[in-house]
Amino acid sequence: MFGGGIPFGHFGGMPGGGGAPAEDVDTTKLYETLEVDKSASKKDIRKAYMKLSRTHHPDKGGDEHKFKEISAAYEILSDDNKRAQYDKYGLEGVSGDDVGAAGGEDLFSMFFGGGGRSRRAGPRKGPSVNHPLKVSLEDLYNGKTVKLAVNRKIIEGTPSECTACKGQGAVMEVRQLGPGMITQMQRTCDQCKGQGMQCSFKSERKVLEVHVEKGMMHNDRISFRNMADEVPKCETGDVHFIIQEKDHELFKRKGADLLIVKEISLNQALCGFSWKMTHLDNRTLVIKSKPGEIIKPEMNTKEALPYVKVLPDEGMPSKGNPFVKGNLYVMFRVQFPETLSPEVVEQLKKLLPEPDVPEEYDPMEVEEVHLNEADLRLFGKGGAHQSSSEAHDSDDEGGAQPVQCQQS
Ligand SMILES: [Zn+2]
């Protein structure tokens, strides 16, 4: 978010052509719903959402409506664009259709109750459709235009008012329940399925040019306004293609950053390495260690994190700003030799710094021991254990049994 002083309207693309919002536009309700300040950071908003959604989740006995409100508020405020629109234009600036959490519910009635406020002008909108679109990491790096054919229903001729319900979309049904008891029930008209209009449809095949922008992320949407099936008396819904990033065999992606895992030998870790790598745009990079550079088995931190190095600006391009790239992280896995011959050991001992200094002792006085293979997950499970059932058994069975440690 920008610091407040920047007039968004000047950048265009906002509803109402950047004009001032109506004075009574509410731009605080969503913040109140998430119990955060209007200046809250993305992180704060996420934290608040996580906390509230846990408390109000319907599976945990929470109120479903409240949960939907929280989800819709989070969906808007966690998205920079939607948040900017909301801050300026209130809910008017955010299309209900863009908020999946609303589940097709009108955003106004969701937050302000039915009839509390006039809805947006214009006809109702027909259902929108989402199509998943699998995209390779290469295509997300380089950008791509794909032509996709969609089949849609379009209205043929002019729709006419439904004769069965006289355009009401619903019919009253009188039912006799018993002697002297009748009930009137309203049900959706079968003839027009509640549309109030009757019309014939034809199928249309439409080829859409889908521009996958450089740097797009998993679940990003590419939308085509009014390209869904036509519905009489309604604005036609939209077609959305939802980016589904395919796994890449070399690169893992998080945001704009990329990560590769590189196995190197102990020799390479100590004496240097160079390896050729083909990047997502087909450039060949030769990654070389600097003289004297040593790759360690793990970072010198308390948590023993994997050893990583970074190549700045070799990550993914940023969406909307493709010249700003993320970074490429290389996580090293040093492959130690399984064993070494005595000759090699002799050589290494002379060459590597800080060789072992033999301890002096009398072998008759001390115990000489060797180490076995181990599994840290078994740490703490040594010693004699009594299982709880055995603990209640009679004493003469001798409940204590040695635990067998697995050695692998
Ligand atoms: Zn009808």
Q: Would you write up a description of this structure?
A:
By secondary structure, this protein is α+β, with helices and mostly antiparallel strands. It has 3 domains: 8-121, DnaJ domain (Helix Hairpins, Orthogonal Bundle), CATH 1.10.287; 130-245, HSP40/DNAj peptide-binding domain; 252-334, HSP40/DNAj peptide-binding domain. The protein is built from 9 helices and 17 strands. The structure holds zinc ion.
**CATH level-1 class of the largest domain:** Mainly Beta
CATH homologous superfamily placement of the largest domain? Urease metallochaperone UreE, N-terminal domain
What is the H-and-E element order?
A: HHHHHEHEEEEEEEEHEEEEEEHEHE
What's the tally of helices? 9
Number of structurally distinct domains: 3
Shape: elongated
- Rounded mean pLDDT is 83
Reported CATH architecture of the largest domain: Sandwich
**How would you classify the helix and strand content by structural class?**
alpha+beta
Strand percentage: 25-35%
> Could you say what the CATH topology of the largest domain is called?
HSP40/DNAj peptide-binding domain
